[in-house]
Amino acid sequence: MKGTQLGEFEELVLLTVGILHDDAYALTIFDELQQKTNRKMILSSVHKTLVRLEEKGYLQSYMGGATAARGGREKRLYELTQSGIKVLNQTKELRNSMWDNIPKVVWEGRI
Amino acid sequence: MKTPQPPKWARKFLHWFCRGDLADAVLGDLEELYHRSFQTNGKRHADWHFVLGVILFLKPFAFERKSKSTNSNHLIMFKHDFKVAWRNLSKQKLYSSIKIGGFAIGIASCLLITLFIFNELSYDRHFSKDSQVYRVIREASFDGQTSNGAHFPHPFAATLEEEYPEIQMAGRFRFFRFSGAGSEVRRLDKPQSQHEKSLAFVDHTLLQILEAPFIKGNPTNALQEPNSIVITKSKADKYFPDDDPIGQILLLNNDESTPYKITGVIADFPVKSHFRYDFLISLADREFYSGEGVNWRNDNYCTYLLLRPGTDVAAFEQKLSGMIEKYFLPPRLQAGREDDIAWVKSFKTKLQPLSDVYLNIDEVGDGLHHGDIRYIWSFGAINAFILLIACINFINLSTARSADRAKEVGLRKVVGSHRVLLIRQFLLESTLFSFFAFVLGVGIAWLALPYFSQLLGKALIFPWQESWFVLTLLTGTVIIGIIAGLYPAAYLSSFKPVKVLKGEISRGSRNSSIRSGLVILQFAISVVLIIGILIVNKQMNFILDKKLGFDKDRVLVLEGTHTLGNSIQAFKNELLSLSEISSATVSEYLPIEGTRRNNGGWAPEGVQLADGVSGQHWAVDPDYAQTMGMRIVKGRDFSSGIAADSSAVLINESLANSLNFENPVGQTIYNWLGAWTIVGVVEDFHFELMTKEIRPLGMILRPSNRMVSIKINSNNMPETVKAITGIWNTFSPHQPMRYTFLDVSYARMYDDVKRTSNILTVFTILAVLIACLGLFALSSFMSEQRGKEISIRKVLGASLGNIFRLLTLDFLKLVFLALVVGIPIGWFLMNRWLEDFAYRIDTTLEVFAIAGSIALLIALLTVSSESIKAGLINPVKRLKE
User: Fold this and answer.
1) Which of B56, B61, B64 has the most A C-beta neighbours within 10 Å, making it the best mutation to test the interface with A?
2) Is the entire prediction scored with pTM above 0.90?
3) ipTM surpassing 0.95, yes or no?
4) Quick one: CATH architecture of A8-109?
C-alpha cells in the first residue's frame, strides 16, 4: 500500500524524533542526524521530510519554546503519532523477520 | 553589545515566498544556526550561510499553497493578451517588421552612443583613495578674462608639503618637452635608437599618489636617485625581452654623458587614465636651469596631492590660497611689474579631483590630451533624437492602425472589459514589441561595435559582465515599451463601443492631427541633422582646401635630425644634390600644431617689451620661406650670402599690422633676444588651428635642428623617399629614419572635426532612415485605407498622375512644414558651432535649399512607391471585395 512505506531518510527522521522526545524540532533533528550518521546534509531537506511525514500522519507538531537566539521565534516541535509509532514498528518487524530468514550458512560462510 | 542580525532582506525574502505556517519555525532554525556560525566563523561567513540557507529553501514544499482557482483569471488573461499580441504581430508582417526594425536600429545606435558617453565619463575612476587625490589648479584673471592653469613653480610641491599638515604626499610631473616631442631611446648595449613619445619627468611620490603598481622595484626608493628611470611593462618587454631591466642603462637622444638607470618596472597605466607615460624620469635634484629650485616665477610643473584621510577639502582649498601671498607675490613685488602683480593677485588655487582632469570642463590649459564635453552633449542630443524618432514611428503606426483594432476594442468592452484591462493589453503588446526590438537592437549594436570603435578611434566594449548593464537593458525595454505604448493604449481604449460597432469611427483619420504633428517633428529633426552634416562637411572642406599661405603638398618632414649634430649642414647639402629635391630647410618650427613654438613678444624701438606686441619668434634657416612656399610681399627673403642677416628678421603681415608700421622693411624691432632688422614681410600663413586667428610672428636665423623639411618636385614619391633614406643611413646608421608628410600632419590636426563629422553623418543617415521607414509604413497604410476611394476615382476616370498627387501631396505638405520648423533651428545651432572657428564658411541659403530638397526628395521617394502601386491597382478587384 502506497504511503505506508518509509524511505530510508524518513525512517531516520522518525526515529530521531522519537529519540529527542521533548525537544524534537528541525534543527536538533538535523544536528542529531549529522552526528549519528556522519553525513553532510542541508537543513531544508530535514524540513521537507518533516512536512511530508506530517502530511502522511506519522508526526504531529505544535509551536513552542521561543529563545532569544531564535530572534524570539517559536520552534515547531514534532512528536510521533500513533500511526507513526505503528509504522516504525512495522518497519522494524519486517526487518527482523527478514534477518531471521537469512540461512545460517550465509553468516558462517563469511568466516 | 548589539546582538548580530542576519541580513534583513534575506529574512523578508523568506517570509515572502515561504508558507506562513512554516516561515517562523524555519527562520528560527536558521537564526539559531546563524548565531552558532557567527561565534565560530564570524559575521561574513554567518551572513553568507544564512543567505545560502534561505536560498536552499526555495523548494516546492515550502511555497505558499495557492489554490489554483483564485489566480487563474489573471493568468489566463495574460496568456490571452500574449496570444493576441503575437497574432497581431504575425498578421501584419510589414508593419511589424518596420515597427520592430526601426525601433531596433534606434536602440542599437542609442546603445552605441551611450557606451561612448560612459567611456568618456569613466576616466580616472580607478584610484582606491579617490576622495583624497587631487591636482592643484589655479584660476587667474587678466584683462577681464579668466583662465585656469595647472602648472606651478619648481618649489611649489615641496613647500606645500612642509606648510600644510593635511598633505600626506605631494608629487610633481613635468613634460619631457613642452612641444610634446619625444626622444630617441637606446639601450646602452644596443646600436639602434627608437623613437618614443611618452616620456615625462616625475617625483617618486607621484607614482605613489597615482597608485602605479610596481612589478619590479619598489615605489618608495625607485626614483630617489637623480637620473633614475622607471619604465612600464610594455616598454620593458620591448627593450629587454630577455633580460632583467632593473639596473640596465638607457640613453636618451644618444647622450652618453647622462645615462639613465632603470630602477623599477610598473604596470602600464590604464587606458582610461589622463596620465599615461611609459618612461618616467626622476626629478630628484633636477633643475632645468640653475636657481630653478627657488624660482617662484616660472610655472612648469603639474602638482598632485594626496590628502590625509578626513581632510575637509573645501576648507583646505581656502587655506591653500595663503601660498599666493607668501610665495608667489614677493618676487613679483620685487620686480615691480604692475600687470604681473595684478595677475598673481588674481590667483585662486583650487583642488581638482582626478576624475575631472580628462573631460576638462574647467578648461584647464595643461597641454594634456582631453575629451570634449561638447561631444558628449551633442551625442547625447542625437541619442535622444533618434530614440524620439523611433518612438514616434511606433506611436504613429499603432494609432494609424487603430481602425483595425477598433472593432476588437468595442467587442471587448461589450463583453465587459474595463478600460484598465485594455490599457494593460496594449501596453503588454508594446512591451512585447519593444522586447523584440531590444533583442534585435542589441544584436545589431554588438555587430556594429568594432566599426563604431574604429570611427571613434577608441576601443569600446560591451560590459556584459556588469549587472547594471543587463539590468539597464531590461528596464529600458519595459520603460520604452510603456512610453511608446502609452499614447496608443490610451487612445485605443477610449473608443466608445456603440460608435465603434456601428462603424462610426472613420478609418484611422480621427487623430490625424496628432499623427501629422509627430511626422512633422520627425522630419524637422531629420532636417536639422541634415543641415548639420552639410555644414560640418562644408566647413571641413573649407579648412582643408583653404589657401594657407604655405604649400603643404609634397613636403617631406624628417624628425629627430638633431642627432646628426654638426653634420646636419652636410646632410642638407647632400639632399640638395638629388634632382628630385628642389629645396630643404632645417627648422623644428612648422605651421603644424604640436611642433615647436616660442612665445615672447615684439616691440618697436623705444617701447618696453612688456608693452609691445605679443607674438612668436621662430628659429629657421635661410631656405625656410622657399621650402614652405611662402610668399614675400615686401622686402626680400633671407639670403645665405649676406652676413648681416644674422640679425635680420622676416615678419608676417599680422606682426607688421600690429606694430603699425607704414613701411616695415628696414625698421628695427626687439624681442628678449635682442634687436633685429626687418628685411621682409611674408604673407600671413596659418600656423595654428583654424579656430584661431593668425597671430604675429617673426622668423630669425638660428639653429633649431630637430626637423628637416624637404620640398620634392618629383611625382615618384617612393623612389625619392628611398633616395633620402639612403643618404640618411650614411649619416646616421644608428637611428632609423622617421618622416611624415606635411599635408598628412596638417589633416591630422583636424582629425577630431573629421571624426565628429563622420559620426554625425552615420547617425543622421540612421535617423533619416528610421523616419523614412515610418513614413513608408504610414503611406502604405493610407493607400490601403483609401483603396476603395481610389478605385472609384479610377472608375470615374482619374489618371495615375491624379492618384499619385492625391496620395503624396498630404505627406509632402507635412514635410514642407517640417522644413519651416527645422531650418531655423538648424541655422541657429550650426551658427553656434561655426562661431568656434575664426575662419569659417558663411551659412548661405544654398545649404538650406539643399537640405530642404534632400528631405523633400527622400520623403517623395518613400511615399511614391506605395502611391504608384495604389494608382496601378485594378479597381474592379478592390470594389468587388
Assistant:
1) B61
2) no
3) no
4) Orthogonal Bundle (1.10)
